[in-house]
User: Fold these one by one.
Assistant:
Number 1:
Amino acid sequence: MSSGAAAAPIFAEGEDCRAAWREATAGYDEPDAHLEILGKPVMERWETPYMHSLATVAASKGGRVLEVGFGMAIAASKVQEQDIEEHWIIECNEGVFRRLQHWAKAQPHKVVPLKGLWEDVVPTLPDGHFSGILYDTYPLSEDTWHTHQFNFIQVTARAGLCGEELGRGLSGRSSPEFPNSFPGQGHAFRLLRPGGVLTYCNLTSWGELLKSSYSDIEKMFEVSCSPPQSRARDEPEPLHDCGTHPWGWGRAKGVGASQTGARPGCPLTAAPPSPPLPQETQLGPLLQAGFRRENISTSVMELQPPPECRYYSHPRMITPTVLKH
Ligand SMILES: C[S@@+](CC[C@H](N)C(=O)[O-])C[C@H]1O[C@@H](n2cnc3c(N)ncnc32)[C@H](O)[C@@H]1O
């Protein structure tokens, strides 16, 4: 790959691959070292130790594991080596899904392949169904490049609900659109049983942030922020800006008020937080979804990507472990 290609941004301004992604060719190369879809570097074999780290966390509680995004089956194969009962996998691309079906036939533990965008499949899955979740999909548009994982993690916002109601989960009612999505619970939190574990990544985002904004990968994940002290222990993090994080998270493109159903006149929108945090802060959405700070940890591994990798050049990679109490 030329250095020109290496320097090109992964997404051009306004680029949106959503409509074409499902039918697009899954470009696995001959040594099975790379997967490209619509010219995007979706998955590469050098990530193997990192994928194994994520898979080990996701399978660490045994039971039924949900994996979102199949790619090259690197993580999935590691999950299958663990002491689990079932392995449910969501994948939206046709070619990748065919590979998943073929791969599933040879696995030691039951595989449940689920075809479609996770945004369509996840709301159909029952509450508390999984002991572990591994979320590793791919941004399908420039506007979700840095934030798609938050759509899976953060509290579901519904038009007509003020941020305060959502943050406290007061209404506790589902919507006809998403019968299994309750305001006050993000998808990940809802799907996990108590004691279950979530792990996830967005390397296409994190690789970019580590080029442009951060040199310390743990800082990139956490960014220093202290939750308000006055909150009761069991109370979820309140929202701000009708669906945004109280310290400023959520005003990023794609997760702003228009998407989260902001209600004009919501008193929380009147006072913008200060100082705002960068849009990519990982901790805020996890806390807002109901996970507790003391149950969120990370481990860092050394792994040098090959120089030709377009999306990641940092020599360290971070594995989150997020336990549901
Ligand atoms: C980075 S790869 C996953 C790599 C995998 N963890 C591995 O070890 O090989 C991301 C996968 O997520 C799929 N994907 C992207 N967006 C998705 C969505 N919204 N719903 C379901 N699958 C999605 C892509 O087609 C791709 O196969």
Number 2:
Amino acid sequence: MELQNDLLLRAAKGEKTERTPVWLMRQAGRILPEYRAVRESVSGFIELAQTPELAAEVTIQPVDLLGVDAAIIFSDILVIPEAMGLPYEMVEKRGPWFPNTVNNESDLKKLRIANGANDLSYVIKAIEITKKNLNGRVPLIGFAGAPWTIFAYMVEGSGSKTFSKAREMLYTQPAFSHKLLQMITDSTINYLKAQIAAGANLVQIFDSWAGILGPKQYAEFSHQYISQICDAITEVPVTVFAKGAFFAREEMSKLNCETIGLDWNMGIAESRKLIGTEKTLQGNLDPAALYGNPEQVRNATIDMMEQFKGSRHIANLGHGVYPDIDPENVKVFIQTVKDFN
Ligand SMILES: Cc1c2[nH]c(c1CCC(=O)O)Cc1[nH]c(c(CCC(=O)O)c1C)Cc1[nH]c(c(CCC(=O)O)c1C)Cc1[nH]c(c(C)c1CCC(=O)O)C2
């Protein structure tokens, strides 16, 4: 199907666009009252994510209600551990929790490499329904967690400020760590390929915990695996968002991907210098800027746009939108990008 709005894809490839495309990380299922209404009709996040018709509905909500230039499929990065044999729960107000964790070779034997189309058929079904109902209005973004971020949850068993157990593993059991990272990488490639076959027009890799590694460890335990994924995905543009990996920007410029996501700690001019002009940059307004009044949101957005001006850019926040942000301010952010030239 021909896309009516392909700004995101053209910007990712570095082609000329009439204006800068805009979407928000975590736009589906955080800020909209319409999302909460759907969410309350089921038992919880996991049931919602596993019900393709409803997942498709909340994926499209931000397109209808906010006017973003892309949809991102409603799911979670933690579906990969589950598909490998490590189920998770989503604890209200606390976040993800794994009843079992992976700590040694014998835990590893209980895991398998996920087959995207079979083990995650509910996501694939949700993508198919979303594509049909979007009817070509905007591109659909597929996604997965980066292997290191997924590893961190599988070893730790929940969120953590330091992920010290996961980082301990890299020092005390490097061979085990590499085996698990490779299994996650192979699963992720299968999964992204299945998302693309079902209709995802671009895929994004979220390395949310990149910033807790030092540069050497990042190169060995994260970057290398992201690089494998980028090399394997040849069908659609790839975006890599490694939060906090300011130290790896120059290395990231060599990845086989179209777009690098910036968080709000990364200076725009400095990032462009380190990454060069062969990549599109995505980001990077501080999500907290949306707590301001509409005038402040507008000014902060214009300030960001001016810094990116003239170079390959997809407008976004520097991380996911916070759940208590007023959707009206999100609309101001989006409209300001659309009006900017
Ligand atoms: C680290 C991470 C996770 N999940 C994700 C990341 C990477 C991005 C980032 O760094 O923010 C990615 C994610 N999670 C979700 C999406 C859906 C699409 C989107 O809107 O971007 C995406 C892209 C839905 C979700 N994932 C989750 C919810 C909230 C669940 C609910 O509705 O109760 C949603 C809508 C739950 C989740 N899932 C995760 C956590 C820590 C939590 C709990 C806190 C939170 O809300 O973020 C793991």
